[in-house]
Design goal:
Number of strands: 5
Strand content: 25-35%
Order of helices and strands: EEHEEHHE
Radius of gyration: 21 Å
CATH class of the largest domain: Mainly Beta
Number of domains: 2
Number of helices: 3
CATH architecture of the largest domain: Beta Barrel
CATH topology of the largest domain: OB fold (Dihydrolipoamide Acetyltransferase, E2P)
Structural class: alpha+beta
Strand order of the largest sheet: 3-2-1-4-5
Helix content: 40-55%
Largest sheet: 5 strands, antiparallel
Length: 140
């Protein structure tokens, strides 16, 4: 489980918008790496407000590591695998060892994979990634 903490910045009937600090690889100490990534490391997420958190409340949210790692695999690994697979299959399909044809067929396969990822992204946006687990400050 991955736990994050955020503050409610907007609230609707059944949902809330949380501002969450992203984790940085340097731990927020930008003097170590010099990238100043902590300055731009706030994101806002829309989440179902089952606990009735109000604007200004600090809340804890959780997400399964399986879901996050699965998404990372889908976005980073699948396109590379389809590119390689397409290049290898082009030799069998077209009965040639022309590298340009292999590259073009691999790119077409990768493009098809990106279309599939885009369609899956539309589907998965309906499923929540984060779940609000408790209100830390501002409880009634």
């Amino acid at each position: 489980m991955m736990k994050k903490f955020g503050v409610v910045v907007h609230q609707n009937d059944n949902s809330a918008v949380l501002r969450i600090a992203r984790s940085t690889s340097c731990g927020g100490n930008c003097n170590k790496c010099g990238s100043h990534c902590a300055e731009q490391s706030k994101i806002e997420i829309n989440i179902e407000n089952k606990l009735g958190a109000e604007i200004g409340d600090y809340v804890e949210v959780e997400s399964t590591s399986k879901r996050i790692l699965g998404t990372a695999f889908l976005v980073y690994i699948i396109p590379v695998l389809t590119l390689i697979l397409g290049m290898l299959l082009s030799n069998k399909i077209f009965n040639t060892s022309n590298e340009l044809i292999a590259l073009l067929f691999g790119l077409v396969m990768m493009f098809i994979a990106f279309i599939g990822i885009h369609l899956y992204d539309r589907y998965s946006q309906k499923q929540p990634i984060f779940t609000m687990t408790k209100v830390i400050k501002g409880q009634k």
